[in-house]
Every structure is written in C-alpha cells, then in structure tokens.
Write a structure and sequence with these properties.
single chain; 443 residues; alpha/beta; Rossmann fold; 7-stranded mixed sheet; 15 strands; 14% strand
C-alpha cells in the first residue's frame, strides 16, 4: 500500500479515537464432518440470521451491494506488514483481491502492529471505526488475538461486513457462536495439512531424529498445528525412512506470543539455540516471523548439519535457502477476493469457513488457500517421498487423525479406528502423547 496513505491513516486514526470512544460510550454492549474429507469440500456453516424482529438488535445479513469502483477493503494486521511471515501473507492476499477487482492501491486501507504490546493505545474496534469512516466497505481482523475487538466492532457497525480470521464466532456448532453478530464471519485455511507436510519433510531429512517446534502462544489453534506437524513427522519417519517410533523426538517450546516482543516473550533466537544445543537438527517454526530459519542458517553456515521449516509466507525460505526444507504457507488472495466480491454483489452472509487446500494443485495461487513451497534443503529423494505423502493426504488414503491417539497426559483422544471430526481437531485441548514440552501455558 502507498506509504503516505498509511501514515495519513494513522494520523486520522489518532484523531478519531476520542470520537469513537465517545460515540460508543453509551452502548449497553460489552454437524460435525471430518477435516480430511475425501471430496475436499470446504467446511462452511452459515450463521443464524433470524435475530428477532430486525430492529435495533443489529441482526440480519449485511448485504446491500457496493459499486465495484467504490469498494474499499480495510485490514488490521497483528504484526508488521512486511514480516516475511503471517501478516505479510495477509497483506499480500488483500492486495491480490484489490488487484483482481481492477481497483487502485488506495482501495486497500491497512494498519499493522495492532496488538496490545506494540500499540497499547489502539483497540481493534477503534481502528475498524476509523477505517469505516474512511470508506471501508468490509473489515478483516487478521488474528485470533483480535477476538474481543472484532466482537465490539461488529456490534457497533452491524451493517458493515466483517471477517475475524481464525475465529469460530459464525460456527453454529462451535463453542463461541455469536448468533447476534450476523455481520461477522470467519475464514481460515486447513493449515493442519500444511503442518503435516512440514513435519513429514522434517522427519525425512533429519539425521538425528530429533525435531523441535518453535511455538507462539498456546491455544487450540497452535496445539492443533503442533499435533499435525507431529503426526506428519511420525508417519513419514516410520513409513518412508523405516525408523523406529521410539527414536523420533519432537519437542515444542512456546515463546508467549505470535512473534517475539522484547521484554514480553521469550527470545526466539535463544530458544532455537537451545533446541540445537539439545540435539535437534530440524527446527520447525510456528511463529509469525523467521527466527527459526535465520538462526538455524547462521549455525549451519558455521558448519553444523541443520535444517529448518519456516511458516506462513510463500517466500520465507529466502532468509536461508540452502537449509530450508520448504514452507507451509497461507494464500489468502482467493478467499479475500471471493468475500470482497460477495460484498460488492450484495450476497455476503456471515459463515464459518475452514477451507482445505486445492488438492489438484496445492500451489495454485488462484485456487488454493494452503500451499507448500519446497526448499533447496530438501533432497530429491525426500521431495519424491513428500509428493507421495501429499497425494495420500489429498485422496484420503492417509488419515493421520485416526485413533488410537492419546493426549499428552495419557487420556484418550481418539479410540482405535475413530476418525476425528472438525470439532475434535479444532478444539485441541492438549498436545498429543509423544510431543515433549508444556502445551497449556497461557491457555
């Protein structure tokens, strides 16, 4: 986005915060299917739009249509816009949607570092209100961390379509269904598959059988992804390398937030050092930024046999290409384009969407929300085995969330032969048995 436009947005935001607070001060508000379905259909649940008599309760669809030439999209980014990771993937996805609609750059209104540590004076609902005042017809909150702000903004602006990325507020069968927020939808990619592929790649290349996972904060989402990486590693260690399951180590350490914040979180670089000093030769990243790859690359340059798997962003391997085994990444463009088009067409309705990869080509930029970009560190043999693994995930012949599986504390998760539902995977209360490390801090 035009840098001058962004700074003007910041100035306008600061000027508007007091007005937003005053305007809001009198408010009184404060069917399960398997994720790995053979047909690859998107799991989607439409929110209940009944909402009473359609009066002041804010119920009903936020659909009215917008002339395409007038459409503006607002997106709030939890981290830096150009982080080579999670926030950059969202920003570029939003840019893709605007470009595909034939709109100029200034049709995208964005602001980054929307989190309490970096910007304690900003609230997501305040930022959203400012974007709406600038003409935004749709607002995207790109982080689970923005939950309360997304709820407040949706309640305060019931006629504006909004998306809370990674949430479950529009899932009728979910734990956090918000029936009264019928303008707030959710979208998320089935990154469980990207992490399975990442875990497989790590196990295929590891010489020590000791894998490590650099985690962010702990919640259902992050445990779900740790578990998926572990299952992928376990499968490929046994089925492609012929390894003994007892010889595979998988350790996770959580730093305390989606990316490192000095004085607030653990030092991500030091955690990577600790992993390597403890015997791990592959570090997988679950945080939004690239410290796992960067530090592993520095130590590899000094002569150690190491590899790493970054996360989130398609070009993340460029930070240390020779040791990168590939990156599971989000491609938000197609989903954001579809959502924007629904607002333009007047057909938007709040839905919970957990979208699988396009198994015909997981790296198709026009169709697949989840991809895996192979890295230079992956050998030809491992790459071929990884392709076989991906094909098995896509056609359903490999179902990793199948019992018997236990939680980390030994209690049963899935009975023998039981295939997990979306609900069971989405709400991952613990890490799986076999994963070392504390998985419930900050839950």
């Amino acid at each position: 986005m035009n840098p001058r436009r962004r700074w003007l947005n910041v100035l306008a935001l600061l000027a508007a915060l007091a007005l937003v607070a005053a305007a809001c001060g009198d408010s009184d508000s404060e069917t399960e299917t398997t994720a790995a379905s053979d047909d690859g259909d998107t799991t989607t649940t439409q929110a209940d739009d009944s909402g009473g008599d359609g009066g002041d309760d804010g119920g009903g669809d936020a659909t009215g249509g917008v002339p395409v030439e007038d459409f503006q999209l607002g997106i709030l980014l939890v981290g830096p816009e150009f982080d080579q990771g999670y926030s950059q993937a969202h920003f570029e996805g939003a840019k893709y949607a605007i470009e595909q609609l034939g709109l100029p750059e200034d049709a995208l209104i964005s602001l980054d570092f929307i989190n309490p540590a970096d910007n304690p004076g900003l609230t997501p609902e305040g930022v959203a209100a400012d974007m709406i005042s600038q003409g935004a017809d749709m607002i995207i909150f790109n982080s689970d961390d923005m939950r309360d702000g997304a709820f407040a903004a949706a309640e305060q602006n019931p006629d504006v379509p909004m998306i809370w990325v990674s949430g479950d507020s529009a899932w009728e069968d979910g734990k956090d269904f918000q029936a009264d927020l019928s303008n707030l939808g959710n979208v998320w990619g089935q990154m469980i598959f990207g992490k399975m592929i990442a875990g497989c790649a790590a196990a295929l290349e590891s010489q020590t059988g000791q894998l490590a996972y650099l985690g962010p904060l702990t919640n259902d989402e992050t445990r779900r992804l740790v578990n998926s990486a572990y299952l992928g590693a376990q499968y490929c260690w046994e089925n492609f390398k012929g390894g003994d399951p007892a010889d595979l180590g998988f350790t996770v350490t959580y730093i305390g937030f989606w990316f490192e914040i000095p004085g607030v979180t653990l030092d991500a670089t030091q955690v990577v050092n600790d992993f390597i000093d403890g015997g791990a030769d592959v570090v997988l990243s679950g945080i939004d930024t690239t410290q796992a790859l960067v530090r592993s690359g520095q130590r590899a340059d000094a002569g150690e046999a190491l590899w790493a798997v970054p996360y989130d962003y398609i070009d993340a391997c460029q930070e240390a290409p020779s040791i990168c085994l590939g990156v599971p990444y989000f491609n938000w463009g197609p989903a954001y384009l579809e959502l924007a088009q629904s607002v333009i067409d007047g057909t938007y309705s709040s839905q919970w969407q957990w979208i699988p990869p396009d198994w015909a080509d997981i790296n198709n930029v026009a169709t697949s929300i989840i991809g895996y970009e192979k890295g230079e560190g992956l050998s030809a043999e491992s790459a071929a085995n990884l392709d076989t693994f991906i094909s098995g995930l896509g056609d359903g012949s490999i179902q990793l969330y199948t019992g018997p599986l236990n939680w980390q504390d030994g209690t049963p998760f899935l009975a023998d032969g039981e295939v997990a539902s979306d609900f069971q995977i989405w709400y991952s209360a613990q890490c799986l048995e076999g994963v070392a490390g504390v998985c419930d801090l900050g839950s």
